[in-house]
Specification:
With about 400 residues, this protein is mostly helical. The protein folds into 2 domains: about 35 residues, no CATH class; about 375 residues. About 60% of the residues lie in helices and about 0% in strands. It has a two-stranded antiparallel ribbon. The longest helix is centred in the middle third of the chain and has 30 residues. Keywords: Membrane, Transmembrane, Transmembrane helix. It is a multi-pass membrane protein. It comes from Mycoemilia scoparia.
């Protein structure tokens, strides 16, 4: 078997699919299916990593579907976990069809913005969904697929009250939460719903801007005005990078502020692991590509063009290969951060969803436009959040007093 086989006489080649699943070089020089080039080997490695990440993620999703007892939480967990297969497959395709990598990356990053939104809604649903400000301890009705007996419902309420007494958190301590740096001198006053609305808008803006930027990338690339290898302001790539940097930074800032608000009342939900899981993916997806692009600039000339590959091709290939490896590592972390065991059905419990309705509820992402007040898009439920948090802290205080007696 020949490895690292390249023809020094070949220049300006493009990768095409003449060899089925393998990749050959266009022109007089063409590798047989059993011969490996650098591109073939990298594509094979990234494909194996993407496949493993996808299988682990799909396995976790299937476990949640089999134990689908809390739709208001699990539907968003499933959609967040789906981020890993989207990134893995998108990066693998970007490596394989590197001359079309811009389009795959744009669509892949669009789902990243949706995943951030789903994580925000998940945190709000952990707190409760009662618009009147009462903690949500009631099971969902039959149409939503979660049928529990009254005794089971009472048992859940009693269990939550027992767990609430285990944490030494007071309402005063919770209200002392301050904004992250650089506004750490200011407190987040939960009695004013404007703070919750600000967090919601600060995160939701990333979804809207990402949709606009995706359209700009696709259109400008089609007309040859994107030019990601250039930092000249006359090309769209510079402005897309700057706007995306500002937008994602604002979203992550407000996401961290939201985490500071809910980490004490939601301690039993382990929000720290979930926050780290979603933030790591966003961090590597943005900064990794930016660093590689900087290293390819003529000023540094660390990533150099060859007679076969341009700097842009090398940057896209390295970034895609690294993302496939990272998604494999993250898939293992996600398996524990978004564990299905918290929703495991008891021996006498069963879900009443039909198979079609189960998949429709979990994967129909258009529900974010229908259930505005209930699932966090509208501001009505956000205004009720301070009262919900206050009642949860009050319930914990009652649990502590009962435990002390």
């Amino acid at each position: 078997m020949k490895i690292w086989e390249e023809d020094p006489e070949v220049t300006n080649v493009q990768v095409v699919g003449h060899e089925g699943c393998w990749v050959g070089l266009k022109g007089n020089y063409n590798l047989a299916w059993y011969e490996l080039s650098r591109h073939k080997l990298g594509w094979l490695v990234s494909g194996v990593l993407a496949l493993l990440a996808t299988l682990i993620s799909v396995f976790l999703i299937c476990l949640h579907l089999r134990n689908y007892r809390t739709p208001k939480e699990q539907r968003y967990i499933i959609r967040i976990v789906l981020l890993l297969p989207v990134f893995s497959i998108g990066s693998w395709l970007s490596y394989r069809f590197f001359h079309k990598a811009i389009y795959f990356e744009a669509l892949r990053d669009l789902y990243e913005a949706l995943a951030l939104y789903f994580f925000m809604v998940l945190l709000f649903n952990y707190i409760g969904t009662d618009k009147n400000g009462q903690p949500d301890t009631k099971p969902e009705d039959q149409e939503q697929g979660e049928l529990l007996t009254q005794s089971q419902s009472n048992a859940i309420v009693a269990s939550e009250q027992a767990q609430s007494g285990q944490e030494d958190n007071t309402q005063e301590n919770h209200e002392a939460v301050t904004w992250p740096f650089p506004y750490s001198c200011k407190k987040i006053n939960l009695k004013k719903s404007v703070y919750i609305v600000a967090i919601t808008v600060g995160m939701f803006q990333y979804c809207l801007i990402k949709v606009i930027l995706t359209a700009v990338i696709i259109i400008s690339q089609f007309f040859g005005r994107y030019c990601p290898q250039s930092w000249s302001p006359k090309y769209a790539s510079v402005w897309v990078t700057v706007i995306n940097f500002i937008s994602v930074s604002v979203a992550l800032y407000y996401l961290f502020a939201l985490y500071l608000i809910v980490k004490k009342p939601l301690y039993e939900k382990k929000p720290g692991k979930k926050f780290a899981a979603i933030k790591l993916v966003v961090f590597f997806a943005f900064w990794q590509k930016l660093i590689l692009q900087i290293l390819s600039l003529d000023r540094f000339n660390i990533i150099k063009q060859t007679n076969v590959w341009t700097k842009e091709d090398i940057v896209n290939g390295l970034n895609s290969l690294l993302i496939c490896f990272e998604m494999f590592c993250f898939s293992i972390f996600y398996f524990f951060a978004f564990s299905w065991k918290d929703y495991k059905l008891g021996p006498n419990e069963r879900r009443y969803y039909t198979r079609w309705k189960l998949f429709n509820d979990a994967f129909n992402m258009f529900d974010i436009f229908r259930h505005e007040d209930e699932y966090g898009v509208g501001l009505g439920r956000m205004r009720a959040l301070p009262k919900i948090l206050k009642n949860k802290m009050k319930k914990k205080k009652i649990g502590e007093e009962e435990k002390a007696k």
